Amino acid sequence: MAGKPQSLSKGQAEEVTRILRKKLVAYVLVGSTILVALTGASLWGVMKRVENKMEELVARQFEEPRIQEVVRTVATERADALMEEQIQPEVDHFMSEVNSQLEELQVLAARTRELEQEIANMAELARPPSLSLVSAETEQVEAGYRITFLFAPSKNEPLGQIIFVVALPDASTASILDFWPANNAYSTNEESEQILENGKQARLTFALLGVESPRVTLTVSGTTQLTIHGNYLDEPIDLRVE
């Protein structure tokens, strides 16, 4: 309760006794030696009586609130000193090691990202080129409809032999009339254009003479759905002609 004196704990009393004993030991030894010489009493007995008396005095003195406040202040200061002298250096050392490990991990993470990017670049270089449809322009002609397909290559390099295959549904009333390259410079042969007799499927094989975007024209006799496959197309292309 507030204002009520509190007794020293056993540990506090022992600590204070130890400090006082250390400071008084010289005086006790001198005084005891003189007392032994005068009275003939044993040195051990004298020391024991002095020690008991000292402990009694310490206990009585520390019943006073003023002394207890001093002890609490000293205990707090000693705790702070212990923290500063023994615990804080260990904390600083630990934090230093953590920061060092963190820096190493950051360097490793950066290097890992660089390697991942290098691998991705190598994979992109190793991946064969592909074509994607840019536009399909339809115009009506006397024979039906002409569709001009423009494709964009994924890489700026020669494509080699290009193959497109166009198929119409079996139920379609239209048929394929013509399928041919529309680039300025290309190479073909007698078998470059192959159209089935029923006009439902056509195959075009050619090579560009240079690096440019492939362009082909397809002529069909009427409105229809169609599908385009190719050796450079990642997926088939479905288109409605009308």
Level-1 CATH class name of one domain: Mainly Beta
- Derived from helix and strand composition plus strand pairing, the structural class reads alpha+beta
CATH fold-level name of one domain: Immunoglobulin-like
- The general outline is rod-shaped
* Quantity of strands, as a count: 10
Order of helices and strands: HHHEEEEEEEEEE
Low-confidence stretches: 1-6
Largest sheet features: 6 strands, antiparallel
For CATH, the homologous superfamily of one domain is named as Agglutinin-like protein, N-terminal domain, N2 subdomain
Supply Rg. 50 Å
Q: Which architecture of one domain per CATH? A: Sandwich
How helical, in percent, are the residues? 40-55%
Alpha plus pi helix count = 3
Distance between the amino and carboxyl termini: 98 Å
Strand content: 25-35%
Arithmetic mean pLDDT: 80
